[in-house]
Fold these 4 entries.
Entry 1:
Amino acid sequence: MGLSEISKNCLEEFKAYILVERNFSKHTAKAYCTDILDFLIWLDSTSCEDVTFSKVREYLHFIQKFQYKKTTIARKIASLRTFYRYLYKEKRVEANPALNLNSPKKPKSLPKFLTTYEIEQILNNTKIETPAGYRNKAILELLWATGMRISELSGLNFEDLNLEENEIRVFGKGAKERIILVSQRAKSYLQRYIDTARPLVAKGFAVNSDDKSPVFINNTGYRLQPQTVRKVINEIVEKIDLPKHVTPHIFRHSFATHLIENGADLRVVQELLGHASISNTQIYTHISSQHLKEVYNETHPRA
């Protein structure tokens, strides 16, 4: 009993396929492979090549008892679809048993964002008395000024910086390269961090600063991980008693929302965010419209 060798091999080949050929991010690939592994464990000794549509439906019925969110169920179904589309493409199965699976409708929700005042509260309460504190200040200023993802910021190397032109090269989802613009304020904090604070962050450890070296480092000189930034934000939000759950991604939502509110062209915002489709960017117009309604209702005497 246990996973069949065929299923193990198929999972390994699938992982290589989505990472190399499909350019999935490491985060997405890990989630998909975890979903498929759960499915294969449930199959036990049954080979993934012998699965029928009714067997897949039986599995989906089985996982209902775990009361996953609709978004999680939708991802698990997407994982199964992608897995069996790959097996069918490679002629490992005669028919695709996941072809006609229907995903649950995702609940429509607008991304949360911070007001300019709330952003400034967070930035102004970031302690800069220590090298690590100044690094954190540069990071938050950069997130707010550029709208980059926290994974993109963590992945920055010195070769990606072109501060003379106020530009930074980032690699987004699917390793897609794009150029983002940096405000003068964020640039000054970043430059001062590089010149003065960065060499002192990892006191007692050798710190490289060649082209391939990470811009943001931890106290041992290695690349700073996203969870550290999340922890920093949580501590600041708790300190100022801000009644919102704030994540690095909310800085990205806030960046896009305020650009739209101030008249930025949707295509420009799409380019800055690195969205593959304009439809992903259009959600910020709905946020902007909602904000306008709130302002109208609060300020118009007859509203």
Entry 2:
Amino acid sequence: MPRELNESLNRPLGGDELFDEIPDTTYFVKDAGARYHFVNTTLVGRCGKTLKSDLLGKTAAEVFPSPLGDEFEGQDRRILEGGAAIRSQLELHIYPDGRQGWCLTWKRALRDEEGKIVGLSGISRDVDGAKSSPLDLEALAKVLNYIRAHLDGPLRLGELAEATGLSTYQISQRIEGLFGISTKQYITRCRIEAACHLLESSDKSLSEIALSCGYSDQSSFTRQFGKVAGMTPKSYRGQATKI
């Protein structure tokens, strides 16, 4: 954020005030030590607290019950160490008061002008329970986790069904209902997101990245990446290194 804007406001602008108005979404910004720096009132309430100051300066492991808090803090530290961002990951959240809820979570690193990671920001949006039962969402979470863990393979629908116990029809219906895209499109999105991270954070060759993201060769990877990102992987890497 430009220094001039912060100075004219005479206070830090963290976005929490905007997210205070959205009751089905939690919002947070954390520093390089994975400690809460900004939070919205929804997150405060979900954690059974009254004031934002009750969370500030604490890590997820200090706020959420174990093992959930440890898992969240582990996510944070992986991102702070240069790991991949989390995008629309389906998670079961268990809050300190015992309530449970399914959410889609996004987390990504925050960098300074020199590209150094100085923190992270994230949101978790509630999944509408009226559209999906808890068992449906638990089964879908297994499908999505399997996809993310096996991006270097073909990931055919039959394989997903066999690995997770859902029918191919159930998988297609659940993914389309939650994300509004087909299973094939979701897998493509996951592959391209993984490729973007590798292009930004590693010196792997394009052929190595292609294979690790499930493409048979560099040319097919380049074609698919171009369709989705609007540029070649080489161009994307060149822009990313300038940020």
Entry 3:
Amino acid sequence: MNRLSMGNRKPKWIHKPYPRASRFRDQLMISLSFGLFIFLFLLFFQPFGLGDIDANKSVYVLGFGLITTFVMIANYTLSSRIAPDFFDADKWTVGKDILYGLGNIISIALANYVYHVKIGGQGIDSSAIFSFLIITASVGAFPLTIMVFINELYLNDRHQKNASRISQQIESGILAHQLETKQKSVVIGDSERDSFELNEEDLIFVQSSDNYCHIHYLEEDKIATRLIRTTLKNIEVQLSDFPHMKRCHRSFMVNRRKISKITGNARAYTIHFSVSDKKIPVSRGIKKDSFFV
């Protein structure tokens, strides 16, 4: 079974794409929200013997909230630098988000425990560390679930509205008017032996697979596919003079003139064609307004 047929299978839930907060503004807001929640939770419910503290209790509890915020910001900042490929937003999945959440909980619990020991003048106790981990996980599970739910609803609504607006522009002919140009011949391939020529208007999209690319195009009004040995990066360079040919994903390059509509959900946008049933994903790093319009 080849890679393309395997790629058409629906992924298991844990492998499904999930929106990762990649902008610093979003990361900061999430970190501040979690820090505030931890501060309020500890102040009102007072676990870890906080009820026995009389002097400067609010200041002491505020330290836990600030540490939570700083640890989360540090994790966001360092994780993408240490392992950029793993934390790539386009490769982010439900499973990775769960692992990242567990890592956050553990690091927050350890940092807060060190703070608790230093301020309280106590010695390090392995059972106390375990208790901190359990309570931190219990406390953090609630805001984490709420944030995931809110994020899913927000992104789903935003993407659907943007997709609807872009589709209306496509249907009204705005995109076609902006890209109006004379048709030209396109030569795709790295060598004379492994290349072919076609009309730019017949090219639908290009899909990469390792060192090969599948060229999907129209031939006598029917969908045809040709496999050539080249990379998508090379094809992108070869088609640089054709403004309607744009890369929308690490594995796809599309003819924007063939787009019929755009749909979106909380995770991503999807391209639909007027001449093909194939649906193409749009990378989360693509600036949607500049790409479609």
Entry 4:
Amino acid sequence: MLLGKVIQNQRKKLQLSQAELADGICTQAIISKMENQNISPSTNVLISVCQKLHLTLDNVFSQFSSLPSSNLYLDKFQAMDQAVQDKKTTALESMIAEIKEGALPSSEKAHLHFLLALLAESKKDSDEAVFQLNYSLELLQNRKTFWGTIIYSELGSVYLDKNQRVKTNYYYDLAYSNINNITVNSSTEFYYYRSVITKIATWYMENNNFERSDSLIDMGLHKFDKYFTGKFTDVLYFTAAQNALNSPPIDYNRLSHSLTTSIAFAEYNNNQALLDEIKQLMSKHNINELKIKP
């Protein structure tokens, strides 16, 4: 029996309407029948709905439990996102070549073209990256979602590399305006979320918008903590320290705690470049002793 309540609860958790869930897959009426009457659609529709909701067939329909999860595109996208996280560009390119775009719902098509943009960036082709990112945005019915926010931020980063600061600020502002409203549903999504937080918090710090930078750091360090990772934590605390130094009167307890924690995570991440930056900052400001908060 189809567990329609599972689909409905996950849809609401992701803040999707029935129409948004149905987009590119089926009609809203079919979604309604699935949720309210436990009526099973075709297998292709059910798989697409699961992909969009980040569910497996096991979650929603027990008779499919014997099917390997590799039948779902969800697993392939998770593998591709992991390749991004591990900086395995060749593996990412190979996996993308196996995806049949026509079978994907619009949200996953946007996800796919986001990954194509990252590939273009790895090849220093910023024009192709901008094209892929803008195409991704066109595929999204609602841009105030996880992927809309991530794509806005990536556009800002591309323009930052091109030294086009006005466009960088424009897209970072768009990402910032919605980042507190998005939901993270996996460790790979948390990686993108943390990456965005770190980039934009650093941008605002460098442009003297310390309040926005601090609000992002707080989100990055304390929101979705079940997915917590050491990645980016060192940079976030270092940015917090720089904000403290530039926000008189200086809170020396906060400054000391941020630097101490940044050093600890930089050592854990083997981030020698950041350790060198911390050393330079401490020397410049004559900071000789650090104390972590009790």
